[in-house]
Amino acid sequence: MDDRSGVRSIRSVDYIIILCDDLEPMRRFYAEVLEFPIHEEKPGVWVGFRIGSQWLGLRPRGRSYDGPAVPGSAASLQLSFRVPPTDVDLAFESLRSHDVDVIEEPRNQDWPHRTLFVRDPENNVLEIFADIDVNDTATGPSGVHTIVEP
């Protein structure tokens, strides 16, 4: 019998919250630079964006269980956003015009993705990617992706 109760019943991520050391620069970045529409907001307390079927929230770090800020230029998380293939390069041009910290310019990976990596104001890594034809992938394996069978 396959027991799919409790934590085994989880089938999707409902929303993501980014804990912020300084909420306002993060709000401006996601609302003005990435142009995500604000879905809900309580100024200074939290802001929520609707991105397709996903909800992305920002809130200040400060609850007893949040822990300390990540030191220096270390990233806390990586978020990946899918776009159509031609939009990876358009996104790069737009982000560059806003002086966003570009980690890796657009390129085809050796798995079927064209990617762009940038940082948000608190050093979180953002990937903007598109699915591409396997014939357009870079040559030479990176060894990054390995499928693990359950």
Description:
- It contains two helices and eight strands; from the N terminus they run βαββββαβββ.
- With 150 residues, it is of the alpha/beta class.
- The protein has two domains: 12-61, Roll (2,3-Dihydroxybiphenyl 1,2-Dioxygenase, domain 1); 74-140, 2,3-Dihydroxybiphenyl 1,2-Dioxygenase, domain 1 (Roll).
- The protein has a four-stranded mixed beta sheet, with helices on one face. A four-stranded mixed beta sheet has the order 5-8-7-6, covered by helices on one side.
CATH superfamily annotation of the largest domain: 2,3-Dihydroxybiphenyl 1,2-Dioxygenase, domain 1
* Share of β-strand residues: 25-35%
Mean model confidence by pLDDT = 91
Text of the CATH class of the largest domain = Alpha Beta
Shape type: globular
Structural class: alpha/beta
In brief:
This protein is an alpha/beta fold and 150 residues long. It has helices at 23-33, 87-97, and strands at residues 15-20, 38-42, 46-51, 54-60, 78-82, 101-108, 113-119, 125-131.
